[in-house]
Write a structure and sequence with these properties.
Elements lengths: L1 E9 L3 H8 L4 E4 L4 E6 L2 E11 L3 H12 L4 E10 L2 E10 L3 H6 L4 E2 L4 E3 L2 E8 L2 H12 L2 E10 L2 H5 L4 H12 L11 H8 L3 H28 L1
Antiparallel strand pairs: 1-9, 1-10, 2-4, 2-8, 3-4, 4-6, 5-6, 7-9, 8-9
Helix pairs in contact: 6-8
Length: 225
């Protein structure tokens, strides 16, 4: 299994364009990405960002700019403290790099980071063909930059997860539980793997509660290097 850190300059997307105009901006997605719907108009996405800039003035300017974009459908500033802000955002994009990654059966293992014109993802892939398909899907959206490909390190990614919690998280991802629309519900997945729904749900929620903070901490440490 391989761990891949990859960025894409996403054409016709507010994120890449906005960080081109504001080069010191860095955005980290702190919650689960929620694809609200997909139709002929594009992909409607909910997300929660931590946004930082070199100065408070630049951050304030950037927040006003993004809020005014036609692609921004909902916006709520929860907190701004100096050069850091926490924002809920719902936006419409013609395409979604996150959705493109999920279609390859790759497993997202860290928060999405938006900076220096790139949407940056960290994913785990089991087979070389999955890596190739993932890169091909992203290249259809724009220019791709591979930051790193390394052997998968369970300790670095899964932290304190038990084996059963790891299995629950991987099973949910492999069955497109985090894509939208969902093809299978928790009931469907638990029946498929022969586990009671309540048991599977508890393992999955426990895994998410451990995994997301650990993944965010890993990203923060890597950005400091």
């Amino acid at each position: 299994m391989k761990l891949l850190k990859v960025g894409v300059y996403h054409h016709d997307c507010w994120g890449s364009e906005s960080t081109k105009d504001y080069p010191t901006i860095s955005m980290t997605e702190l919650g689960a990405v929620h694809i609200v719907k997909k139709d002929d108009h594009g992909v409607l996405v909910d997300c929660f960002w931590r946004i930082t800039a070199d100065t408070e003035k630049e951050l304030t300017s950037y927040l006003k700019y993004v809020q005014s974009l036609p692609s921004t459908k909902q916006w709520k500033l929860f907190m701004q403290n100096g050069n850091k802000a926490y924002v809920y955002m719902q936006f419409l994009s013609k395409t979604s790099s996150y959705d493109s990654i999920l279609k390859t059966n790759a497993l997202p293992v860290g928060p999405i980071v938006q900076e220096h014109e790139h949407e940056i993802h960290q994913v785990a892939t089991e087979k070389p063909k999955e890596t190739a398909k993932l890169l091909s899907n992203l290249e259809a959206l724009g220019e791709v930059k591979v930051y790193k490909i390394s052997d998968f390190s369970e300790d670095a990614v899964f932290g304190a997860l038990t084996r059963k919690q790891q299995d629950a998280l991987l099973t949910a991802c492999q069955n497109n539980y985090y894509s939208w629309p969902r093809k299978l519900s928790l009931d469907d997945i638990s029946k498929k793997v022969g586990i009671k729904r309540r048991t599977f749900q508890e393992r999955l929620r426990q895994a998410e509660a451990k995994f997301i903070p650990a993944a965010i901490e890993k990203i923060v440490k890597e950005k400091r290097i």
